[in-house]
Design brief:
The complex is a heterodimer of chains A (about 375) and B (about 290).
Chain A: E1 18-27, E2 30-40, E3 45-49, H1 56-64, E4 71-76, E5 79-80, E6 91-94, H2 106-116, H3 121-134, H4 150-162, E7 168-172, H5 180-197, E8 200-205, H6 208-214, E9 217-222, E10 225-230, H7 232-237, H8 242-247, E11 252-262, E12 265-269, E13 277-280, E14 289-295, E15 301-303, E16 312-323, E17 327-333, E18 339-345, E19 360-365, E20 371-373
Parallel strand pairs in A: 3-8, 3-9, 6-7, 7-8
Antiparallel strand pairs in A: 1-2, 1-4, 4-5, 9-10, 11-12, 11-14, 12-13, 14-20, 15-19, 16-17, 16-19, 17-18
Helix pairs in contact in A: 2-3, 2-4, 3-4
Chain B: H1 2-30, E1 33-34, E2 41-42, H2 51-56, H3 61-68, H4 70-103, H5 109-117, H6 124-135, H7 140-148, H8 161-186, H9 190-197, H10 202-213, H11 215-230, H12 234-239, H13 247-257, H14 261-293
Antiparallel strand pairs in B: 1-2
Helix pairs in contact in B: 1-14, 3-14, 4-8, 4-11, 8-11, 9-10, 11-14, 13-14
The chains are: A alpha+beta (about 375), B mainly alpha (about 290).
Chain lengths: ~375, ~290
């Protein structure tokens, strides 16, 4: 089977399924969403990521119809959905608390939405069976929500929200109540189900790992604004700000002054005691401009000998070692007191490793390893 | 083992002393005959004559009498009707109040709760007398209605069944509101949103989700109103008229006006037997509820 790149956001011919146009939402004096515009495309698995209070839940509730924008327009498939109440939208939501009806069996919970549409009984039965099979809940159909486990409840909530085959499914922190192992398994299940059903998913989460795992695109939010909307890989590799770089994964931020030394090549001076660094950037920096060089720890090489032919090399002393099993993160203190994190994969057995606490070490990275950020 | 036994023994001892012993005494009196004596019935237990002659003097005469005079079964029936109707009225008034309380902003709820409980701070009798002042022909209600010109002649409310209904609904309203409020307050608000999300209108979400989930509160509230209303004595005797027939009033008259303790006791025993049915149902509801929660 030929893999087709799924990138509707790069295709100007594509019409977005959801379009936020300069949407503002205020609660009293508090501005939850601030003049925000965003397009989400059909079949996307779109993640809204941010710390609590960043407005991601408000975005979702506006899509669900539980909040109306103070200003601006929200379109679903080209139609303004501002005045449409939740029960008239082709949008379903999976609630953070799951919101399963405790007085109804699993079967009746899943059938709830279908019954409201006055569908014929055999059609409802068929659809419920289908949903039970999709979420592997056939055995629990007759039970009540309090008689099943947390993971099963989560699947019931998913089955119930998918039963009406919505154009758009909203997931509010869907895996928040599950423990880590189950959460990881469920993430893959969610992706499978999204692919099988072809439904557009919008997920709200504060867990960056979860967003990176499941989503086709991630929107990083802060204080009611979108900071960056990109694919997980690009968010990680080319963050557009220190905020995003810091929010997604682990990062070293080196503050310095840029000087152009060639095409898209800059020298960064960062303190008198240390040799200047070399980095590339497609974004232009003027001479003497303050810049922040963001380097992921796994892109920093640690060695006992001075590396040959490295664009950047600095010497320091090992302060801490965080052993994570598969990886080790070394915290290396430079003579200026700055701490740089370097991560290596533990491909050798522990006894063979030669770097330990207090060892003098060399850190090195290439000119392209980091990202130069203006803010 | 001893400790467990002692723990179980306490409630049973309580039940024995405060329920079973009085009941046996009343039951015994109901099987006795009237006498011009103190106490006004015979036989009294006399160890000298022996238990045999004591039991031989007991009979079901009074219970047979209850079936012969239609006053009694009419009083029972009328009490049942009044209790049922007032329970329904209390539910109709209490549910919206409880719903409003549960939906009120968080900071308002303690105040609203206080307002519901506040009447208990004054004597029940005083409050019933206050209703006499409100409902009488020259009372506040009639004066107000005459003043705004809705009526030309005062309405006769006091000493009718209407006044009894008003009194019962007013008195027992908190017993209806509190359990329903407790059930509604516990309910997760996102359930209503989920129902709306799945295609319910506001109204159908109320019937399909809110009402079933407050079912236990409704049942508890209805029993808490129905059971005391059935045997109610003070309200019908103060607010009701000569036409108001309630078993509590009949019971009181047999005891204190007629001084026929055996018949009065028989009335009480039958009332208790009638009440056993709803009490057992109520207990089963409570038990089911606590099972569902664990």
């Amino acid at each position: 089977m030929q893999a087709i790149e799924f990138e509707p956001w790069d295709d100007p011919q594509q019409k977005p399924l959801i379009r936020f146009q300069n949407v503002t939402k205020r609660f009293g004096d508090f501005t939850a969403i601030d003049d925000l515009s965003l397009d989400i495309f059909e079949k996307e698995f779109f993640a809204l990521l941010g710390p609590s209070g960043c407005g991601k839940t408000t975005m979702m509730r506006m899509l669900g119809g539980f909040e109306t924008p103070t200003k601006g327009r929200i379109e679903l498939a080209g139609k303004d959905i501002g005045p449409v109440p939740p029960n008239k939208r082709a949008v379903n939501m999976m609630f953070q608390s799951y919101a399963l009806f405790p007085h109804l069996s699993i079967w009746d919970n899943i059938a709830f939405g279908l019954r409201r549409d006055k569908k014929p009984k055999d059609e409802i039965d068929r659809r419920v069976e289908e949903m039970l099979k999709l979420t592997r809940l056939e055995k629990f159909a007759r039970r009540k929500p309090h008689q099943i486990s947390g993971g099963q409840r989560q699947r019931v909530a998913l089955a119930r929200s998918l039963a009406k085959a919505p154009k758009l499914l909203l997931l509010d922190e869907p895996l928040g109540a599950l423990d880590k192992k189950l959460r990881q398994d469920t993430q893959f299940e969610l992706m499978d189900i999204q692919e099988t059903t072809g439904t557009t998913f919008v997920i709200v989460t504060h867990d960056q790992e979860e967003a990176m795992t499941v989503a086709s695109r991630v929107a990083v939010m802060d204080e009611g604004r979108l900071i960056q909307v990109e694919t997980p890989a690009r968010i990680y590799e080319t963050p557009n700000s220190v905020y995003v770089a810091d929010f997604i994964g682990d990062v070293n931020i080196i503050n310095g002054e840029a000087t152009a030394i060639g095409e898209e090549r800059y020298r960064i001076t960062w303190g008198d005691a240390l040799p200047p660094l070399v980095a590339t950037s497609a974004k232009p920096f003027s001479d003497g401009q303050t810049c922040h060089l963001a380097i992921r720890p796994e892109k920093v090489t640690i060695s006992t000998e001075k590396p040959q032919e490295a664009d950047n090399a600095v010497q320091g002393k090992v302060l801490d070692i965080a052993y994570l099993g598969n990886l080790s993160t070394y915290h290396v203190e430079l003579p200026t007191g700055t701490i740089i994190k370097a991560q290596t994969a533990n491909t050798r057995r522990i006894a063979r490793r030669n770097i330990t606490w207090e060892d003098p070490v060399w850190l090195s990275w290439t000119a392209t390893a980091g990202v130069m950020l203006a803010e | 083992m001893m400790r467990r036994f002692a723990l179980i023994a306490v409630p049973y001892l309580w039940l024995l002393l405060l329920f079973l012993v009085p009941f046996v005494i009343v039951l015994k009196i109901s099987l006795s005959d009237t006498a011009l004596a103190i106490p006004p019935y015979t036989p009294t237990l006399d160890w000298a004559e022996g238990l045999g002659s004591f039991f031989s003097q007991l009979d079901f005469e009074n219970f047979i009498w209850l079936t012969q005079d239609d006053l009694y079964w009419r009083a029972y029936l009328s009490s049942l009707v009044i209790a049922l109707v007032s329970t329904a009225l209390t539910l109709m008034i209490g549910y919206p109040m409880a719903y409003g309380m549960a939906r009120a902003p968080e900071e308002w709820r303690p105040t609203l709760m206080m307002l519901v409980i506040l009447p208990f701070w004054t004597s029940f009798l005083i409050r019933v007398y206050a209703w006499m002042g409100i409902l009488s022909n020259e009372g506040f209600l009639n004066q107000f209605l005459l003043w705004i010109g809705v009526i030309d002649t005062p309405l006769t409310i006091l000493n009718t069944n209407t006044a009894v209904y008003i009194g019962i609904v007013y008195t027992y309203l908190p017993f209806m509101i509190l359990p329903i409020y407790a059930a509604l307050d516990r309910m997760d608000g996102s359930l209503i949103e989920a129902a709306e999300d799945l295609g319910c209108s506001r109204l159908s979400a109320f019937w399909l989700v809110t009402v079933p989930l407050s079912r236990n509160g409704i049942i508890a509230g209805c029993f808490l109103v129905f059971i005391p209303a059935l045997g109610e004595f003070v309200i019908p005797s103060l607010l009701g008229g000569s036409g108001t027939l309630m078993i509590g009033k009949v019971l009181w008259e047999e005891f204190f006006s007629n001084r026929d303790w055996p018949v009065a006791s028989a009335v009480a025993v039958v009332l208790l037997l009638i009440l056993v049915v709803p009490i057992v149902l109520f207990q089963r509801n409570q038990q089911k509820q606590s099972e569902a929660e664990t």
